[in-house]
């Protein structure tokens, strides 16, 4: 089978592992820098051009689209879809997960547990906004943030007001969320592939940092999920339409709540913490569905 990994950097751990896993199973795997692609949009023979030549005969693609390049990256994914190529994550699913507000609204519609979250345009009633999420401490997030960047813990009411007003002066779109104190700086990364949780780890933030992202110095260990946590992760991935997803959960006093659904979850932390061949399971999912000609909604 001929598989393209859409990635800006062939040396990245996740990209290398996916290529190695595909080749280990006898597939022809090629890393394509999607930013160097352009698209011939036509009804008769749509194509993706790379280094001056059409990319042809691919059976499947595995998108690894950077958050900052979502618009162009998903356009390339969509063009492959127009050409009838199976994608591990379809363009619309990537867009749903990348828009944090839309993602939370989709999850809420499906009855999936979430932290109390508020989104507002005007800031005249900042006190009311803060009260809606239960008061300080609370978490303020930039909608466009990633890997823990643009996430602030406001420990007092006045600090929350100052941060919210500062962000709005910059015309930034923000979410205000309740702070789940009982999670104690820990979260769960559940790796969902093809509707199953194949691996899970618990991440603990660095000393003095409530964020648990590994990019911010957090540490990870293998964890056993409860049936409710597994179900929540699977439902979240399904609600956004992702075949491959990293679902981040917090353990709250009222059950698991979803923080985020990631369409390009990193493989290094999860493989090292769990010793699961996550890359191989992604390749198996892709090849199976590409052979079946599966099309997801």
Automatic annotation (TrEMBL):
It holds the Pfam family Rimk_N. Its cofactor is Mn(2+); Mg(2+). ATP binds at residues 141, 178-179, 187, 211-213. Its EC number is 6.3.2.-. Keywords: ATP-binding, Ligase, Magnesium, Manganese, Metal-binding, Nucleotide-binding, Protein biosynthesis, Ribonucleoprotein, Ribosomal protein. The keyword Metal-binding applies. It is an enzyme of class 6 (ligase). Mg(2+) 1 binds at residues 248, 260. GO terms for molecular function: ATP binding; metal ion binding; ribosomal S6-glutamic acid ligase activity. Binds 2 magnesium or manganese ions per subunit. The keyword Glycosyltransferase does not apply. InterPro entries: ATP-grasp, ATP-grasp_RimK-type, ATP_grasp_subdomain_1, RimK, Rimk_N, Rp_bS6_RimK/Lys_biosynth_LsyX. Mn(2+) 2 binds at residues 260, 262. Mn(2+) 1 binds at residues 248, 260. Mg(2+) 2 binds at residues 260, 262. Residues 104-287 form the ATP-grasp domain. One of its GO terms (biological process) is translation. One of its GO terms (cellular component) is cytoplasm. Belongs to the RimK family. In the C-terminal section; belongs to the RimK family. This is Probable alpha-L-glutamate ligase. It comes from Aphanothece hegewaldii CCALA 016. The lineage of its organism: Bacteria, Bacillati, Cyanobacteriota, Cyanophyceae, Oscillatoriophycideae.
């Amino acid at each position: 089978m001929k598989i393209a990994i859409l990635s800006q950097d062939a040396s990245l751990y996740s990209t290398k592992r996916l290529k190695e896993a595909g080749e280990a199973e006898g597939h022809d795997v090629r890393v394509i820098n999607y930013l160097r692609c352009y698209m011939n949009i036509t009804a008769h023979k749509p194509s993706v051009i790379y280094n001056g030549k059409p990319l042809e005969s691919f059976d499947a693609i595995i998108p690894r689209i950077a958050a900052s390049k979502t618009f162009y990256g998903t356009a390339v994914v969509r063009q492959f879809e127009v050409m009838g190529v199976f994608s591990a994550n379809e363009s619309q699913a990537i867009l749903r997960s990348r828009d944090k507000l839309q993602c939370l609204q989709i999850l809420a519609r499906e009855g999936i547990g979430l932290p109390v979250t508020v989104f507002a345009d005007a800031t005249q009633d900042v006190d009311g906004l803060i009260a809606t999420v239960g008061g300080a401490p609370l978490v303020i997030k930039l909608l466009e943030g990633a890997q823990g960047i643009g996430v602030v813990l406001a420990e007092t009411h006045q600090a929350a007001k100052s941060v919210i007003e500062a962000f709005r002066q910059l015309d930034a779109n923000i979410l205000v969320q309740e702070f789940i104190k009982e999670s104690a700086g820990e979260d769960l990364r559940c790796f969902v592939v093809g509707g199953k949780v194949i691996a899970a780890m618990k991440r603990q933030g660095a000393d003095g940092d409530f964020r648990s992202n590994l990019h911010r110095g957090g540490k990870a260990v293998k964890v056993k999920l409860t049936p409710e946590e597994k179900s929540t992760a699977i439902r979240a991935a399904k609600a956004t339409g992702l075949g491959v997803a990293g679902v981040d959960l917090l353990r709250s006093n009222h059950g698991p709540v979803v923080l985020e659904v990631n369409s390009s979850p990193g493989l290094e932390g999860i493989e090292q913490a769990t010793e699961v061949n996550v890359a191989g399971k992604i390749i198996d999912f892709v090849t199976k569905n590409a052979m079946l000609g599966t099309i997801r909604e």
